[in-house]
Amino acid sequence: GAGLVLSAADRAIPAAACFLAAAVAGGVFPARRAVAAIRSRTLDINALMVVAVVGALILGEWLEAAGVVFLFAVAQWLELRTMERARQAIRALIDLSPREALVKSAGLERRVPIAEVRIGDEILVRPGDKVPLDGIVVSGQSDVNQAPLTGESLPADKAPGDEVFAGTINGRGALDVRVTRLVRDTRLARIVHLVDTAQASRAPVQSFVDRFARVYTPAVLIAAVTVAVVPALAGAANPAEWVYRALVLLVISCPCALVISTPVSIVSALSAAARNGVLVKGGAHLERLAAVRVVAFDKTGTLTTGELRVTDIVPLGTTRTDELLRYAAAVESRSEHPVARAIVAHASGSGIAVPLAGRCVSVPGMGAEGDVGATHVVIGSERFFQERGIDTAAVDVADLVRARHEGKSVVFVAVNGTLAGGLALADRPRDTAREAIGLLREQGVRWVAMLTGDDEPTAARVAAELGLDEHHPQLRPEQKYALVRALRSRYGPVLMVGDGVNDAPALAAADVGVAMGAAGSDAALETADVALMSDELLRLPYAIRLARATLRNVRMNVGISMTLKAVFVVMAVAGTATLWMAVLADTGASVIVVGNALRLLRAR
User: Fold this and answer.
1) Under a CB-based contact definition with an 8 Å cutoff, are residues 513 and 281 in contact?
2) DSSP string covering 303-369
3) Hey, which of 33, 70, 104, 513 has its CA 20 to 30 A from 426?
4) pLDDT classification of 257: cutoffs 50, 70, 90
5) What does residue 141 show for φ and ψ, rounded to 5 degrees?
């Protein structure tokens, strides 16, 4: 018998040593965070963890001490791993800005890092390239997509003397540009600086568990000190017994189930969101999502597709509608301009056989002309027609005037030197935009606004079509930033949805920034807290619904855990609870709350 006892003791010593080593090794990081919290005059969940582990070690409960530390470490690892996977997926979407410019010097072209380009240098921007630096066009004509920077839905025509900006996308013509600003001074750089300022001024997020722990931790410590000291001061017969009960109280009070269940709820929600095309960069952003009361949208590429569509065909004289569209599509079929693509797509969708055009000539930023059989066709802007000497007196026809007032782009078509009609094009709202806004209102969103760099007629048309509460046109990035702050002061927590560089400051200023993942710029994706992978707006009300379900789940888990704790705290003070009973109850609570959290994986 003595040999067996000795053998058990011999086995217990190395086991205790292993548990002690595990508790100390795993407790280093929580201890550091607890010290930092105490220095900032707060008591968080890390402080309670450390005190409970120390109490368990004093009581000789090596397994309990090691188990609590292990569960805490697993919970932290799970949350960090899920957040990092979301960030990696977002980084994979990023389209890097140009790092070099093609500088022209002494008749030669050479690639130079943009940081080495000087004011006055002449750079070549080829068709389809991003403009690397701000400058003035010296020669060449092209259409430049400025939507990422300004939010304009139509490409801007650029000719000698016009200004171009870093980060915009050149169209179908080559441009020689004289640099006017260094890389640190470009409009894009100013936007990035504004983003940094907005993020620095954003209030830090305190999770529900942290807020709970700020109250719970000091309450438990005060209760433990009271149990240990008051009976002794009152003349209790055995003061050491009350100290033991105080340590048992600390171990029981350690929120093991709370510690593991909250991250599991967050991980489950983040995983469910990712599976449904919503990447969330962390659990804190889920809590912010749940509190959203006002949503602000960018227009181009967010509420709208960012692609032009033909909305009106206005023939003049004896020209038929199908005939006008056929002529226009024939000449534009050779072009990659957004207007040309829209006209050709509309003709194909209308079942019109588009004939081949001969001797086609394209003038970047102006229009195109060519021969369709024996008919000479010219299509383009009013300025292009004036240069060709074609009379445009009929452009004030009612339908074309109305289209212009609605912010639509109008192109004219001439047949054999005579104006034959016009086509109106517009950037159309996404098919699901109106439904998504309706679902947001059903979920308690009080106000829906649109912040856009586009002109007033275009913005008003889209706002009316989608039933928005307010719209603000022709906004610069700093104005969007200011409006987001104003919306928060009027209505409460703000969610901002955007896709362009010009949206980045507003995304940073909002309580939750959401980027359109597939079409979003690198600045928007980096700045945003959430990315919609498929650019599907219906994912937005889903994300808010999931966030609110997650917060309810966390609170329910806290309730389950604390109810069991309360029962055993009373038993501990009364001296009827043993430590193994508390451990068993805590393990049971952990199983219950983890199972509850995993329900979020089925959220739709």
Assistant:
1) no
2) IEEEEEEEEEEEE-TT--HHHHHHHHHHHHTT--SHHHHHHHHHHHHTT------EEEEEETTTEEE
3) 513
4) low
5) -135, 140
What is the C-alpha to C-alpha distance for residues 385 and 392, in angstroms, rounded to an integer? 7
Task: Between 83 and 401, name the one with better pLDDT.
Answer: 401
Q: For 302, which DSSP code? A: I
Q: What is the pTM of this model?
A: 0.70
Distance (Å, whole) CA 119 – CA 156: 24
User: What burial letters (b/e) apply to 224-260, b meaning 16+ CB within 10 Å?
Assistant: beebbeebeeeeeeeeeebbbbbbbbbbbbbbbbbbb
Nearest residue to 186 (alpha-carbon basis) of 141, 123, 93, 128: 123
| Helix, strand, coil percentages, rounded to 5, for the chain | 55, 20, 25
Share of the chain above pLDDT 90, in %: 20
Average pLDDT (155-167) is 86
Amino acid at 168: T
Catalytic residue among 134, 298, 522, 535: 298
Residue 89 confidence (pLDDT) above 60: no
C-beta of residue 478 within 8 angstroms of C-beta of residue 326: no
**pLDDT the model gives residue 464:** 92
CA distance 403 to 398: 9
Say if residues 522 and 96 touch (Cβ distance below 8 Å). Answer: yes
Please, which residues have CB within 8 angstroms of residue 478's CB and are 6 or more apart in sequence?
194, 505
The residues facing 532 across adjacent strands are 278, 516
CA distance 2 to 114: 82
CA distance 132 to 102: 9
- Angstrom distance (rounded) from CA 491 to CA 510: 12
Assess whether 298 carries a catalytic annotation: yes
Ranges of beta strands (E only) in 220-301 are 278-280, 294-297
CA distance 312 to 404: 11
Mean pLDDT of 192-217: 64
Average pLDDT value for residue range 464-484:
92
Give the pLDDT mean for 160-172. Answer: 86
Provide the b/e sequence for 504-527 (b: ≥16 CB within 10 Å). bbbbbbbbbbbbbbebbbbbbbbb
Mean pLDDT score of the chain, rounded to an integer? Answer: 79
From CA 306, how far away is CA 593, in angstroms rounded? 45
Torsion of CA 451, 457, 461, 462, to 10 degrees: -30
Looking at per-residue pLDDT, the higher value among 520 and 110 belongs to 110
Confidence class for position 3, pLDDT limits 50, 70, 90: very low
Region 497-504 average pLDDT: 82
pLDDT at 287 over 90: no
Secondary structure class of 407 (helix, strand, coil):
coil
**C-alpha distances out from residue 297 to 61, 271, 573, 590, Å:** 56, 26, 56, 41
CA atoms within 13 A on the CB side of 174: 6
- In terms of DSSP bridges, do strands 512-516 and 494-498 run parallel, antiparallel, or are they unpaired? parallel
